[in-house]
Write a structure and sequence with these properties.
The chain has 260 residues and is α/β, with parallel strands linked by helices. It contains ten helices and seven strands. The chain folds into two domains: 1-42, no CATH class; 45-239, Rossmann fold. Helix 5 (105-114) packs across helix 7 (143-155). The model is unreliable at 6-17 and 244-260 (pLDDT under 50).
């Protein structure tokens, strides 16, 4: 409490010396974290109509209850929420956060994600998608774990930051078919010893930065449910919109998102 009071008291001085700026264009803003009005207007937010199972945005002329992917392969997860859709401004935020060391962006991104989780059970546990230790060492942080912490600051949910472990490194999955993605991820993710009992019978919110093919989150969902979690809901900062493509095709990062 005292720390928060001190931070609030010093903020005007800090803002005077280091004026807050928009992380996308560098324009001065009234307060951080946030974007300037111009950049804010470039973000795209999910809306209806959407798939009832995975919340993938659907066109008005294709407003079925379920998207084609969920009809073909019903997901095991209990829904997907995304703060924004993956357009160029969202991509720039993710790149600067994930690869540019701008870890302060977690506050803004987590705040936007938390706004989409207002209906989540109060006792749900936040679990970040894990990084392999080699990638964690090279990057210095797990961006999903930082997002989970930022979300928890707004929602009050408990974070189990090390519940999932990535046991082997995997290369980028873009360009791979479903069978190849499944082979790459087989036995790559497991529950950390000692965490299984904490997840048994609990609702879990799986935290990720960007949802593209959904291959990694699908494996996380499978591991969590097979380990006794009551349900798993996926929350991400940005998701790639559905593109009508062959079922086994994953060209680059433009894929069918979230079909677990």
């Amino acid at each position: 409490m005292a720390s928060n009071t001190l931070s609030s008291a010093l903020r005007p001085l800090v803002d005077f010396v280091y004026p807050p700026r928009c992380p996308l264009c560098g324009e001065g803003i009234a307060a951080g974290p946030g974007l300037c009005a111009t950049c804010w207007d470039t973000l795209e937010f999910p809306g209806g109509p959407a798939c009832a199972a995975c919340q993938t945005p659907l066109s008005a002329i294709d407003a079925e209850r379920l998207c084609h992917a969920c009809v073909a392969r019903p997901p095991r997860h209990s829904g997907i929420v995304a703060a924004v859709l993956y357009n160029e401004p969202a991509r720039q935020l993710v790149l600067r956060f994930k690869h540019g060391g701008r870890i302060g962006l977690a506050r803004l991104m987590g705040q936007l994600m938390a706004a989409r989780l207002s209906g989540a059970p109060a006792d749900a546990i936040l679990v970040p998608v894990p990084l392999h230790r080699t990638r964690l060492w090279l990057r210095g942080y797990n961006q999903s774990a930082l997002l989970a912490g930022a979300v928890a600051q707004h929602t009050g949910h408990r974070v189990l930051v090390d519940a999932l472990v990535r046991t082997k490194p995997t290369r980028q999955l873009g360009g791979l078919g479903r069978a190849e993605r499944a082979r790459m991820l087989r036995d790559a993710i497991r529950i950390r010893a000692g965490c299984k009992g904490q997840l048994a019978g609990r609702d879990v919110i799986l935290i990720d930065d960007v949802l593209t093919s959904g291959a990694t989150t699908s494996e996380c969902v499978r591991v969590l449910l097979d380990s006794g979690a009551a349900s798993v809901r996926i929350a991400c900062f940005a998701r790639v919109e559905v593109k009508r493509r062959a079922e086994n095709e994953t060209p680059g990062t433009i894929t069918i998102p979230g079909a677990a």
